[in-house]
Protein 1
Amino acid sequence: MLIQDYLFKLDNLQPIHPIILEMENIGKRLNFPILNRLSARLLSLISISNKAKYVFEIGSGFGYSAMWIAIYNEYLEKIYLTDYKSQNLEMAKEFFRVVGIENKLETYVGDGLKILEEIDIKFDLIFNDAEKKLYPKILEVAKKKLKIGGVFISDNTLWHNKVLDENENDEETLAIREFNEKIFSDRDFISSFIPIGDGLIISIKVL
Ligand SMILES: C[S@@+](CC[C@H](N)C(=O)[O-])C[C@H]1O[C@@H](n2cnc3c(N)ncnc32)[C@H](O)[C@@H]1O
C-alpha cells in the first residue's frame, strides 16, 4: 500500500461533515481541482490550534478549502475568499448559506494578491492556493499582512513533483522553486514542508 493510501484509510476513520462530501463530489463532477482532503484537514486543524479569527485565502474556487476552516474552527470571525471567477464565489456563498455560516464569509472577485495588498487587516492565517507564478510575490505581501504568530500556508509546493526534477524548468516550476527557497531562507518565518497531497509549506511569522 502507498503511504498516501494508508493516510487516507486512517483519515476515513474520522467523521466528516456531509457538506464536505457534497463539495468533493461536485469537485469531481466538474473536474475542478480542490485541495487534497489530507491537506484540507491539516489546514483546518492548524486554523483551530492557532485560534485563527481572521483568515484570507488567495484562490478560493467554490470554497472547499475555506469550508474546512469555517465549519470546524469555532474561533473564526471572518474568512475572506478571493477568486477570478464570480461564479465560483457564488457557489461558495451558497454552500456557506446551506450550513448557516454565511455571516462568516466575505468574497472578493479579482486577483487575490492585489486584494490582500489593499485590505487594511492583519490576518491570523493566510492560505495561498493561487496561480503558481505569483507565489514569490505573494510571499512578500502575505508577510506584511500577517500578525506575528500568524500562519502562512501554501499548497502545491511539490508542483506534481516537478520541483524535484532539474530538467523541469517551465515558468510555474521555476516560480515554485524560487518560492520554496525564499521562504525557507526568510528569518521572519519558521517553516516546515509537509509532503502530503501536492505539498504544503506551513510557515509561522515569528518576526
Ligand atoms: C486549485 S483551485 C483552488 C480551490 C480552493 N482553494 C479549494 O481547494 O477548494 C485555484 C482557484 O484559484 C483561482 N485563482 C488562481 N489565482 C488567483 C488569484 N491570483 N486571485 C484569485 N483567484 C485566483 C482560480 O480561478 C481557481 O478557482
Protein 2
Amino acid sequence: MKKVLVTGGAGFIGSHVVDRFLESNYEVAAADNLVTGNIENISGKNIKFFNIDIRDSVKLEELFSAEKPDYVIHLAAQVSVSSSVEDTVYDAEENIMSLINILELCKKYNTEKIVFSSTAAVYGIPEEVPSKESNKTAPLSPYGLSKLTGEEYIKMYSGLFGVNYVILRYANVYGPRQSAHGEAGVVSIFNDKIKADGDIFIEGDGLQTRDFVFVKDVSKANFICATENIKNETFNVSTNTDISILELFNTMKKYSEYTKDAVHKEARKGDIRNSRLDNTKLLDSTSWKPEYTLDQGLKEYLAK
Ligand SMILES: NC(=O)c1ccc[n+]([C@@H]2O[C@H](COP(=O)([O-])OP(=O)(O)OC[C@H]3O[C@@H](n4cnc5c(N)ncnc54)[C@H](O)[C@@H]3O)[C@@H](O)[C@H]2O)c1
C-alpha cells in the first residue's frame, strides 16, 4: 500500500486530506507543529503523527528517512494575509524555506509526487473573471508572493531534478474544522456569531463576490491529483461560482436559527470586488468535479 505524508495534517484542510487518504486505505503520516492546527482534528485516526516544525530540516529528514512517502501533500504554511504583511520574514521562512526543505527531501528520497496548496491570492487583481491558470499573476501581499515563489521553486525542482508535482490554487475554502480565530474565513466567522447569537458584520454593501468551495471537494482534489496519472500541472480548485457575501449570509441564516439582520460597516480598503476561479482545466484533466453546492456545503457544515 502506498504511503502519503500530509504536512499541516492537523489543520483545517489537512485533516480532511488525511481522512480522504484513510478512506482509500493509504498509510498516512502527518507532520504538524500545531501552530494553528488542532490535534483533535486527527485524534483517534489510524495515522502516524509527527509533531515537528517543517522549517527544521534535520527533523524533517528523520521523518522522510523513516517513512519514505510515495506522495507528499504539502499544506503546512503561514496562512494569514495580514500576518504576512506584519511579519514578512516569518511568512517567507514558513512558505518558502520550509518548502525548499521539503523539495530537497522529495529529490533525495525519490518521492513520486508533491501536491502543493497554493491560492487565488497569486492572481492579485484578476486580469479577467473567472481567473484562468494562464492569467497574469500579480500578488498584492507577501502571502500571495510567497505562495507564487513556492510554485516557481517547485517547477524549478521539477525541471532540474525531475520532482513531479501538481500545484492547486484554491478559491475560498470552507467547512467543518475551520478555525474562526485569527485570520479566519468569512464562513467560519459567521458560523461562530450564529452559534453565539452575536452581531454579524458585513463590510461595505455585501455585493462583493467570492467563489466558495467545500473542504471535502478540496481534499478530493488533493487525493485525485496525487493518485491519478497527472503531473507537472497547475490547477484552480473552485466551484466557479459568484456568491455575494450577502447571499452567503442569507443562506447561512436559512440553515440556522439565526434571526438578526446583518450590520453593515465600512468597506475594507483594497478589497477585491469579485474573485472567481475557472475550474475547467481540473474538470477536463482529471475525474474531479465538485460535489457540493454552497447550499449543500452549508447545510452539512451548520448541521454539525
Ligand atoms: N483555507 C483557505 O481558504 C485556503 C485558501 C487558499 C490556500 N490555502 C492553503 O491551504 C493550506 C492549508 O490551509 P488551512 O486553511 O487548512 O489552514 P490551517 O492553519 O488550518 O492549516 C495549516 C497547518 O499547517 C501547520 N503548520 C504551519 N506551519 C508549520 C510548520 N512550520 N511546521 C509544521 N506545521 C506547520 C499548522 O499548525 C496547521 O495545522 C495552506 O497552505 C494555505 O495557504 C487555504
